[in-house]
Specification:
Blueprint lengths: L9 E8 L2 E13 L3 E7 L6 E2 L4 E2 L4 E7 L4 E7 L5 E9 L3 E2 L3 E14 L5 E4 L1 H7 L1 H4 L1 H19 L3 H4 L3
Parallel strand pairs: 1-10
Antiparallel strand pairs: 1-2, 2-3, 3-6, 4-5, 6-7, 7-8, 8-10, 9-10, 10-11
Length: about 170
């Protein structure tokens, strides 16, 4: 039986990569059905991160969806006024949930879907190839590539937002 987080509870989200913590931040649990955990958190860095096609900045709010049985996490991004910027999707191993934290292991591949649904971008495929996951863990590398393909297909078909409804 999985550890279930209670709505309204505070938790810590830890994003790790190659067994090193990339970032840690506090979040509020919105729901946990035993498969998917949804949390809300503000942009966790004190500075702007400009990707060229979107800027994450202080005041942005993220609604983050993590699955215990899927190889990705999807983050809905809104600005400080509540306007939707889009969805940032991280290809990850299935999330590990304990009473105090969610641990999400980043596998380098990402996808961006703009708020209007017209811009779908596969990101960091070069970083994924250079990272050597295929040599260390071919099964995980295959799962990561399949997850990115699944996310892209959902985004292009307009189904990504529907994936996130309760």
């Amino acid at each position: 039986m999985p550890t279930l987080l209670s709505p309204g509870a505070r938790t810590v989200v830890r994003l790790v990569k190659a067994d090193r913590e990339k970032v840690r931040y506090g979040a509020r649990v919105l729901r946990d059905d035993g498969v998917r955990v949804t949390v809300a958190a503000p942009w966790s860095l004190p500075s702007v991160r400009d990707f060229g096609f979107v800027r994450f900045e202080p005041g942005d709010e993220f609604t983050e969806h993590y699955w215990r049985d899927r190889w990705y996490a999807v983050k809905e991004v809104r600005d400080a006024r509540g306007a939707l910027k889009g969805w940032y999707c991280d290809v990850t191993r299935p999330v590990v949930v304990t009473a105090g934290e969610l641990v999400s292991e980043d596998l380098d591949l990402d996808l961006w879907l703009s708020a209007d649904g017209h811009e779908v971008r596969r990101l960091d495929e070069d970083e994924f190839a250079a990272g050597g996951l295929a040599g260390r863990d071919p099964r995980a590398a295959d799962a990561a590539r399949r997850a990115l393909d699944e996310l892209e297909a959902l985004a292009r078909a307009g189904g990504l937002p529907g994936l996130l409804t309760p």
